[in-house]
Amino acid sequence: MNGWEWQLLEDKTPLDHVVVSGVELRVGNRVRLLPRKGGDILDIALQGQEATVESLEQDYEGKPHVCVVLDADPGRDLGLLRQPGHRFFFDASEVEPLPPDRQHPAAVVQKPGILVAGIGNIFLGDDGFGVEVVQRLCRRQFPSAVRVADFGIRGLDLAYALQDGYSTAILIDAFPHGGLPGTVYVVELDLNDATAFPASANVTEAHAMDPMSVLRMAAAMRGPLKRVLLVGAEPESFGGADGRIGLSAPLEAALGEALQATEKWIHKILAEDSARAD
């Protein structure tokens, strides 16, 4: 049973425990998923996965259901925001309690420490600056602690990526800040400071993504992110009503400086992290 079907059942009742294979299964216990053959294709795809019981509920017919969150799901720590798409419901007969020595989840694999994210819309002129910088960065070699990715206008994807264990994010974007076109800025953002992105930089229509809103969403998710840097360049034009592919001459000329600034900060942050680890 998928989550949407479950939400339609108004008479669901929480249970203290259910008995599976002679074992009392409670919230917080870990299980292996054994979906029945011929069931929902999405459930079958989770065959053999290990998960943690989030709730035990009984439908209006008195049938118990086990709600689980996958141990391998990077969105498992999103709180209420994980409810759509991150919780799965199974019949009690479709789960197998793990033995006592497996009741504590394996240590979470440490994710890269720095996320470098390109932001922007390539169909709106200079708004594609961050995407172009990241595409060039992808040709460079960085330690495994660094992930470089083009998020374009996919704000929700970026918000979820910021929950994936990174302590630092470097956002690369066109950044209207009142300077001459092509001026490169490096700004450390305070997620609690409403003025971190001035009103002139809130280019929601150009992006279909407001970076500050994404960062505030990430902060609300209570992820591990501690530091956010913006490497931005003053745009000349977002291409007008009809849009335009390609950067203006000032932003094309600013690509090299933005690359150097980003690489400098990556190596600086890695050195600081290494010093703290020692």
Topology summary:
Blueprint (H helix, E strand, L loop, with lengths): L2 H5 L5 E2 L3 E3 L2 E3 L4 E4 L7 H4 L5 E9 L5 E7 L12 H4 L1 E4 L3 E3 L16 E6 L9 H9 L8 E7 L2 H7 L6 E7 L9 E6 L14 H4 L3 H10 L6 E7 L15 H29 L1
The string of secondary-structure elements, in order, is HEEEEHEEHEEEHEHEEHHEH
CATH top level label of the largest domain: Alpha Beta
The CATH superfamily of the largest domain is identified as HybD-like
- Average pLDDT works out at 76
Q: Work out the helicity level.
A: 25-40%
Return the structural class: alpha+beta
Radius of gyration: 23 Å
Termini distance? 49 Å
Strand residues, percent: 15-25%
- CATH architecture designation of the largest domain: 3-Layer(aba) Sandwich
Descriptive report:
By secondary structure, this protein is an alpha+beta fold. It folds into 2 domains: 3-102, SH3 type barrels (Roll), CATH 2.30.30.490; 114-277, HybD-like (Rossmann fold), CATH 3.40.50.1450. Helix content is 26%, strand content 24%. α4 (129-137) packs across α8 (249-277) and α5 (155-161) packs parallel to α7.
